[in-house]
Task: structure prediction
Amino acid sequence: MLSDAVNVALVYPPSRTQCHTACPMGLQMLAAVLENSGYRPILLDANAARRRLDMEALVAELDRLRPAVVGLTLVTPLVRDAYRLAGRLRERGMKLIAGGPHATLLPEEPLEHGFDAVVAGEGEPTVAEAVAAVLGRINLDSVAGLVWRDAAGRAHRNPPRPPVADLDTLPRPARHLVPATDFGPPDDPALHADLFTSRGCPARCSYCAGGLFGKRFRFRSADSVVDELIDVHRRYGTRHFHFVDDAMSMDRERMRRICRRLMDERLGVTWNMMTRVDSVDEELLDLSARAGCVQIDYGVESGCAETLRRVHKPHSVEMVRRIIPLTRRHGIRPVVFFILGFPWENTSALDETLRLMRELAGHVEFHPAIASILIPFPGTEIYEQYHQEHGFERWWLGDDRRYDAPCDGVHAFYQRKLYRLGSVLDADFFHYPPRVRSKIHDLFRFMYAQNLRREPWLKRNLILLAMDASRALDALAPPLERLLVGGSLHVVERLRAGRQAA
Ligand code: B12
Ligand code: SF4
Result:
């Protein structure tokens, strides 16, 4: 045991687009380790669905809690605000530790922005020692996996910590510390529904920022996974589970064992997973469906064979054409993700993706996050290849908020509808020619129209008409679009509010 009860706040910084219905799994894992080491961890997710905290509210909350140490998860799109937050907390004398994907990729950067230390890679084996070290209880240079700053401001990188060899040895996430009502109504059976069962992915997709867990696929045993699921089901009444692994079915034998055991247990629970198109087959889909799987998220990314080849995607368009309808045939909802705007893609490459989207439309659900525009995350091959040519070096530190959610009054109506999760097309990392930009809009419009297909005919067509008018007017004169479309929508909203009040 390293310490008596010192308060350590584990914080997920605020985002304008993220909304979490479950507390981030990483923070829950760290809280479990810290609690076992005698600390008093406090989980604070600024994006909790029922208690969103902006920067000011978060600082006020931390002022109230007065933790000795604050640990922050750094993901690239949120890093600028996280550094601003770090500055505010440092003024208050709190010790600061960073971890997570961005901190792992660029461990010296947080030290330049007020952090005392950075945990590179998986947090569990290092976090308790990192806390002891920033509190001055052990030497900073004695902690493997730690990157830290000395009194003169110089950065030091200690030898790395090897990846956790046996994931079954990790403690279970500290679900008992999650402020449950922050994430959903108290009687919501979906609470505490996230589980992780494996880490790492052997593929090397050129845009993937998932290097934190390494290339080797490491996994928990089937029994360890199902035992935890049963425990959560019994303790909290959870009936639906979400596995957050990148590629859960990479080891098919283990996946089969998980499914068989779930079938034997007859819990009546459902679950969804993310996995790779090339790591399922008919037998596995059949078993998964019988074991309660209701949804599989696949990263399809593109319908253009040349793009899939260039990004080193481990599947082909043909595999997608086979696996997606097969998934649906087994009663599992396939959710497919696309990435639009690879720098070499012209309009005919995007047309190939549109063709695939059309083919899949009868089988998949489209939802707002189903496609995104390529973001060059640090550490990726795409970033390394293109940052000089397109001048987006260290874009995450820039003053540019344009890759954030589109705003009322700033963006056109059609942009606010299509890019709800981030208006990265504005940021224009790759300087798309007008024809490519326009084609990207077409693809987003196609998906949006698909989403509306269950709406009444008149409503669906009015929305699409308003979107098309907005796009045409915006191309002609943006202020006119804001005035005419934005203005009419305000009137409609006021009328609707009035009717509801009456
Ligand atoms: C679930 C998930 C989400 C969920 C919810 C996030 C949440 N509640 O945590 C949602 C859907 C909201 C989401 C959104 C996005 N996500 Co996401 N997401 C994931 C996913 C699949 C799982 C996260 C998880 O639970 N992992 C398991 C836990 C145990 O690992 P962990 O969180 O990394 O934590 C460990 C370490 O990082 C470390 N650690 C983490 N925090 C801290 C803090 C301290 C103090 C310390 C010491 C250590 C530490 O220790 C933990 C235990 O080992 C990961 C991929 C992955 N497999 O990890 C991507 C991932 C984190 N997401 C990613 C991205 C890019 C996004 C989006 C930007 C996507 C987009 N284009 O819109 C958005 C963010 C939007 C925005 N504007 O902010 C990237 C991040 C890359 C980067 N450079 O930052 C990842 C790695 C996916 C990838 N391969 O590219 N995401
Ligand atoms: S298959 Fe998925 S998790 Fe694996 S490298 Fe590619 S994008 Fe990343």
User: Anything to note?
Assistant: The pocket of cobalamin (ligand 1) is lined by residues 15, 17-18, 20, 24-26, 29-30, 71-73, 75-78, 97, 99-102, 119, 122-124, 127, 130, 196, 208-210, 212, 244, 246, 372, 375, 377, 421-422 (CB under 6 Å).
